[in-house]
Amino acid sequence: MRDALDKKCRARQTRDMKNTAVANLHTDGQDFVIRDTFDHASLIVDKQERVRSGFDAFPSTRFYGSKRRQLPWLCSVFAELPGKTILDACGGTGTVSLLLSNLGKQVTYNDVFAFNQISATALFGRKQSKPQDLLVFLDEVRPVRGFISKTFKGMYFTDEENHWLDGIMSLVVDIDDAEWRAMILYCLFQACLKKRPFNLFHRANLGLRHSKGKVKFGNRTTWDASFSTHMMSAHADLLKARALVETPVNVLPAGSADVTVGNFDIVYLDPPYFNSHRHTESYLHRYHFLEGLARYEEWPRLLNNGSPIRQLRDEAVPGEWSSKGRFESQLMSTLDRYIDSTIVLSYVAEAYPSESTLRRSFEERFSQVRVIEKPFNRALSKRSRMELIFVGQNL
Ligand SMILES: C[S@@+](CC[C@H](N)C(=O)[O-])C[C@H]1O[C@@H](n2cnc3c(N)ncnc32)[C@H](O)[C@@H]1O
Fold first, then answer.
1. Do 236 and 252 reside in the same domain of the chain?
2. pLDDT for 238-250, tens place per residue?
3. 40 φψ region: left (φ > 0), alpha (ψ -120 to 50), beta (else)
4. CB distance 272 to ligand 1 below 6 Å
5. Do 343 and 270 reside in the same domain of the chain?
6. Does residue 364 carry a pLDDT above 90?
7. How many domains does the chain have?
8. In whole angstroms, how far apart are CA 178 and each of 175, 186, 290, 296?
9. Ligand 1 center to 95 CA (angstroms)
């Protein structure tokens, strides 16, 4: 599998280098065909840059900001960079770490949230488990009326579903095997996302599931399918994804990117983006419920009781880059921390700070700076948005 992806990546890179100056790469979104010289197969890449084979094995996710759709593009950028050790500093779903492991790099994964750290532990763990093992576990779940049922009544899931969540969590906390616990939580997080309108917990909008109106994001069949059904499918995805792991990935304890320690040839940064014109919701606001599940036993005392959505208190995840006012200096201090590494930063046009400000900051710090750009379609919108990759190196 690694060879196949590697070849795709190289083929893509060769095509890019032939057609375009790498220093300012624009792609027009046309269909194209790559000749795979090894097995002479042609790989069709569609307008959204989704490789129809190879990259399909990467787990699907509803996580906001996931780079899954950009993997072929990122692959072509990383393939041309020298260096073996890489820090994926804001790793999220772990999909980029998975790509890098597949390319044979020595990867260290980091994210500030415990639920993301747990998901990465599941993805990069070695614990063997068959679908039957999960089925047996799920069969033991008995609904109970516990913390979730009482705290989140009528907000995110139905009463019946809340009782089931309390039931599964009463079993999860007693699992001693950390990897098996992580695998179950991974499947549960994915199931929770799928069952939520907009795949988020930013609003207590359970009513949308029962409204007669047109559904804009998600669908009723997916929302109404059981947690168990979604968990079995997430488990299948997880096993498929694990076959892509080539080199072990080191998962750091949850913490902020600006305090990670270590020497890395490359540091990949994919931070939250702040809208330049309006307020941007934090990841804590979007995913507080998953963070609560990840830290179930602490959840009652992490709760902000005054919050209408029963969010966790901001102090629960103090390191998150969630303030537009502080973000620029936090990002710059991370660049300074890794000034001897090659920095690869995923970003978007029209975010705060602006592309030109960031370019200046890179140029002040690195002798070689490239900004590569490419339009991608956005979920929920017909408009595309310009995605950027900054590469800074001191040669
Ligand atoms: C755009 S997403 C990254 C998505 C990821 N590359 C993927 O493909 O799934 C931004 C990530 O930054 C994380 N984050 C926010 N503040 C952080 C911080 N101070 N240090 C590390 N990660 C942080 C969020 O939890 C989120 O997972």
1. no
2. 999 999 999 999 9
3. left
4. yes
5. yes
6. yes
7. 2
8. 7, 12, 17, 14
9. 12
